[in-house]
UniProtKB/TrEMBL annotation:
Transmembrane segments: none annotated. The keyword Flavoprotein applies. GO terms for biological process: alkanesulfonate catabolic process. It comes from Methylobacterium terricola. Residues 9-329 form the Luciferase-like domain. This is LLM class flavin-dependent oxidoreductase. Keywords: Flavoprotein, FMN, Monooxygenase, Oxidoreductase. One of its GO terms (molecular function) is alkanesulfonate monooxygenase activity. PANTHER family: ALKANESULFONATE MONOOXYGENASE (PTHR42847), BLL6451 PROTEIN (PTHR42847:SF9). Pfam families: Bac_luciferase.
């Protein structure tokens, strides 16, 4: 079981204010909002912030550079999709950013489970082919970060002759590699490459099962004791339990209203395994494991991190500790009111988690 001081919290920053209950407002790249969100997370004691990737969204590397420029300590979790630039180039970009931020960079590898979205960037590979490409990509990225001499690589998707990076990460042996994906192909790549395997907010039984699968995959590479686990939730907090559940119902109603206003019908069956797992949980009921709320995931087709933990800050902190006991070392938490919830998490939820374990509050540090 991880020690409490080894448990880290990751927030979420975006270039524009918006969520399932808020239509996007402001410019597509809203520097004032991005700065306010990043600084709120740093002030609130988060360890890192996720900068997401999507085929139609602003560039995650550029956003991460801006976030780093307006903060002092908080780490970066930069979502990055392999296959659209040379792995040697990506390795140098990330190592350079790690140097410029004095060791604050981290990368979240998202191979992608939605063929339609991948096609927007011109990628026509199948899912299994994409994960095979990702594995080669990470072989080369890590070699660029760690090799003291030029190296060759001869794979199906990539060939490198005398590859070398003069810039190495501050973090040794390299900056942390977060990895997402729940298919069998994804689990295999995670076992080989992931430092932190990232799940969406599943039931305790599902998390236990997934951790066992990933550890088994890591064992094949002698890495079982090196891999850690991250879990993502949308905490819904209030001063009382009844008020928190009432707020959860209100968020569901507002989600439905915004979807209707956008002309969205019933959510389609998702193409990726992670979403299907959330919907499998939702099929068991709206409230699971006391605090897990699945109705919003069901309403939206589990498009992304969409399950919630509901209760007072102390009650949600207790639920997080239950997942910690399963081996989770990182929690990615973001709200439906993005900036306001981030402030509340830093003021109430993270301190409640630390108090529950008898650990003092601490300043942000790289996860």
């Amino acid at each position: 079981m991880p020690q409490t001081e080894d448990v880290h919290f990751i927030g979420f920053v975006a270039a524009q204010y918006g969520s399932e209950i808020h239509a996007p407002t402001g410019p597509v790249v809203d520097r004032a909002y991005l700065r306010a969100s990043a600084q709120a997370h740093e002030h609130g004691g988060f360890d890192r912030v996720l900068i997401a990737f999507h085929s139609t969204a602003p560039d995650s590397f550029a956003l991460a550079q801006y976030v780093a420029s307006v903060t002092e300590r908080i780490g970066l979790m930069i979502a990055h999709r392999p296959g659209f630039q040379a792995p040697t180039v990506a390795a140098r970009q990330l190592a350079t950013l790690d140097q410029l931020t004095d060791g604050r960079a981290g990368v979240h590898i998202i191979t992608g489970g939605n063929d339609a979205e991948l096609a927007q960037d011109g990628d026509g590979l199948t899912k299994d082919e994409r994960y095979a490409r990702t594995s080669e990509y990470l072989d080369i990225v890590k070699a660029s970060w760690t090799s003291p001499e030029p190296f060759d690589y001869d794979g199906r998707h990539y060939r490198v002759a005398k590859g070398f990076s003069a810039v190495k990460p501050v973090q040794q042996p390299h900056l942390p590699v977060y990895f997402g994906g729940a298919s069998e192909a994804a689990i295999g790549v995670a076992g080989r490459h992931a430092d932190i395997y990232a799940l969406w907010g599943e039931t305790q039984a599902q998390v236990r099962e997934t951790i066992a699968r990933v550890r088994a995959a890591a064992r094949a590479h002698g890495r079982e004791d090196r891999i850690r686990f991250s879990l993502s939730f949308r905490p819904i907090l209030a001063a009382t339990e009844d008020a928190a559940w009432a707020r959860a119902k209100e968020i569901l109603a507002r989600t439905r209203a915004l979807r209707a206003a956008r002309g969205l019908g019933p959510a389609a069956v998702p193409p990726n395994e992670g979403s299907r797992r959330l919907l499998a949980a939702a099929a068991q009921g709206e409230r699971l494991d006391r605090r897990l709320y699945t109705a919003i995931a069901a309403e939206t087709g589990a498009q992304g991190n969409s399950t919630a933990l509901v209760g007072t800050p102390e009650q949600v902190a207790e639920a997080l500790h239950e997942y910690r006991d399963l081996g989770v070392t990182t929690f990615l938490i973001r709200g439906f009111d993005p900036l306001e919830d981030a402030v509340q998490y830093g003021r109430e939820l993270i301190p409640a988690f630390r108090r529950l374990a008898g650990a003092p509050a601490r300043r942000p540090a790289a996860a």
